[in-house]
């Protein structure tokens, strides 16, 4: 795996560096107190900001002291952290305004080769406006108004840090993901033939099967090696789960525990196979299970089992295809395959489809390609203007994979109708290669520090 990019937070004592550090790492790892000088050593943690993953360093307050003193040695540690980082976040206190030490730090940062993002902390309300305006004089570009304590200005901070901390997936990392075991869960209603199918995959009677519904109670994970047509072995972790009945019909405490265990197995999986009983077709409970899988962001395949004994197979397949597209409009066109746990037919095609689906689920589109598509999409269908006021969409970026996740930036995006967001999601799926997996899209608007509270 390639290393995470590194962000160093720097500033004079007591401007809120440790508070911001704690917010970025999602834990209270750094001590926070009103007294200056609480942080002395560099503290590091893995951070996540709207899906952007990076390593963050909380540094000691930068003070102008003799190098042999404790504050001087702390300053040397801070300087070393900045020089080793991919970007530096210079934090000032918007309420207190600029100090001579802020100006000295800015002069030093301008001599460094590390990109610098300037943020004015404690900018909530009107008390920070003067300090925010003063910060322009530091010569480090436009300051971002944030509140580390209240989480305000996070979208703006993300936007400024993204060009410096975005990590492209390299070939070695992609190969490592493909070499990792495929986590494949088999789910469905009771007696759909899940355990029989797993036994057929393994080539042995590893799991108890029979005509009685509900034999499987615990989710069973089994490691398996599958060989493709080119003779390449692929590691697979098969997860057989208990049947999921409609919630209202589940009264037995043990069955409730079994269903809960099956839902946890879905959380653990990368690709989920929803197994249908080919002698019964698609039922409402199947759609509920499929929707729950997609809501969890997992890649989904629907497989029709007992295909060897299904009546009118052509009509059955087309009927299920149409019902899926209508009942799961958010996942129109998801893979639909046929298998037989009894004869083993269709198993190779099922695993091939699961491996391909995982690759799509884990894929990342380049920022350039994404924004070229985005510009064309909004030119073809501009966003609406509710109340006569224009919604301006600025750009879009992919912030995560597994499932593919995107953030849309612009002004007044909170007024975008759901229909327009669906238009964008459908475009991403159709034109950027994500048609078969769930896609998540969030909209973020920058905070206006001058807007009346």
From TrEMBL:
Biological role stated in the UniProt entry: GTPase that plays an essential role in the late steps of ribosome biogenesis.
Name of protein: GTPase Der
Binding site for GTP 2: 188-195, 240-244, 305-308
Family listed: Belongs to the TRAFAC class TrmE-Era-EngA-EngB-Septin-like GTPase superfamily. EngA (Der) GTPase family.
HAMAP family membership: GTPase_Der
Domain of life assignment: Bacteria
Native organism taxonomy: Bacteria, Pseudomonadati, Pseudomonadota, Alphaproteobacteria, Sphingomonadales
Residue span, EngA-type G domain: 5-169, 182-362
Keywords: GTP-binding, Nucleotide-binding, Repeat, Ribosome biogenesis
PROSITE patterns, A to Z: G_ENGA
Example of a GO biological process term: ribosome biogenesis
PANTHER family in UniProt: GTPASE DER
GO molecular function terms listed in the Swiss-Prot or TrEMBL record: GTP binding
Binding residues annotated for GTP 1, in chain numbering: 11-18, 58-62, 121-124
Subunit structure: Associates with the 50S ribosomal subunit.
Pfam families: KH_dom-like, MMR_HSR1
SUPFAM superfamilies (alphabetical): P-loop containing nucleoside triphosphate hydrolases (SSF52540)
């Amino acid at each position: 795996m390639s290393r995470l990019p590194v962000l160093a937070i720097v500033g004079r004592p007591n401007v809120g560096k440790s508070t911001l550090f704690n917010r970025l790492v999602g834990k209270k790892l750094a001590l926070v107190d009103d007294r200056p000088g609480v942080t002395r050593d560099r503290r590091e943690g893995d951070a996540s900001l709207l899906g952007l993953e990076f390593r963050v360093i909380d540094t000691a307050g930068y003070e102008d002291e003799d190098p042999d003193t404790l504050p001087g040695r702390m300053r040397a540690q801070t300087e070393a952290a900045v020089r080793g980082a991919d970007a530096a976040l210079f934090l000032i206190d918007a309420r207190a305004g600029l100090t001579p030490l802020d100006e000295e730090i800015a002069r030093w940062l301008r001599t460094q080769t590390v990109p610098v993002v300037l943020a004015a902390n404690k900018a909530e309300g009107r008390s920070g406006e003067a300090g925010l305006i003063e910060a322009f004089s530091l010569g480090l570009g436009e300051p971002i108004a944030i509140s580390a304590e209240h989480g305000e200005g996070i979208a703006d901070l993300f936007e400024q840090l993204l060009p410096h901390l975005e990590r492209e997936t390299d070939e070695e990392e992609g190969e490592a993901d493909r070499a990792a075991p495929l986590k494949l869960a088999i789910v469905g209603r009771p007696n759909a033939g899940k355990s029989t199918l797993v036994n057929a995959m393994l080539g042995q009677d590893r799991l108890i099967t029979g005509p009685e519904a509900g034999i499987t109670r615990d989710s069973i994970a089994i490691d398996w090696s599958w060989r493709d047509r080119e003779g390449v072995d692929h590691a697979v972790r098969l997860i057989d789960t208990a049947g999921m009945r409609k919630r209202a019909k589940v009264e037995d405490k043990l069955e409730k525990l079994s269903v809960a265990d099956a839902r946890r197995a879905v959380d653990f999986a990368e690709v989920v196979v929803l197994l249908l009983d080919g002698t019964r077709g698609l039922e409402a409970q199947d759609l509920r299970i499929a929707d729950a899988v997609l809501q969890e962001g997992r890649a989904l395949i629907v497989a029709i089992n007992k295909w060897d004994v299904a009546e009118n197979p052509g009509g059955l397949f087309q009927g299920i295809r149409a019902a899926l597209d209508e009942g799961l409009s958010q996942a129109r066109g998801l893979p639909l395959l046929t298998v037989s746990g009894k004869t083993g037919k269709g198993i190779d095609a099922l695993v091939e489809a699961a491996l391909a689906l995982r690759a799509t689920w884990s894929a990342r589109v380049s920022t350039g390609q994404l924004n070229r598509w985005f510009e064309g999409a909004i030119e073809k269908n501009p966003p609406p203007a509710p109340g006569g006021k224009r919604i301006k969409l600025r750009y879009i970026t992919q912030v995560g994979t597994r499932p593919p996740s995107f953030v849309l930036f612009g002004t007044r995006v909170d007024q975008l109708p759901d229909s327009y967001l669906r238009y964008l999601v459908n475009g991403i799926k159709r034109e950027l290669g994500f048609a078969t997996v769930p896609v998540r899209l969030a909209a973020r608007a920058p905070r206006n520090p001058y807007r009346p509270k």
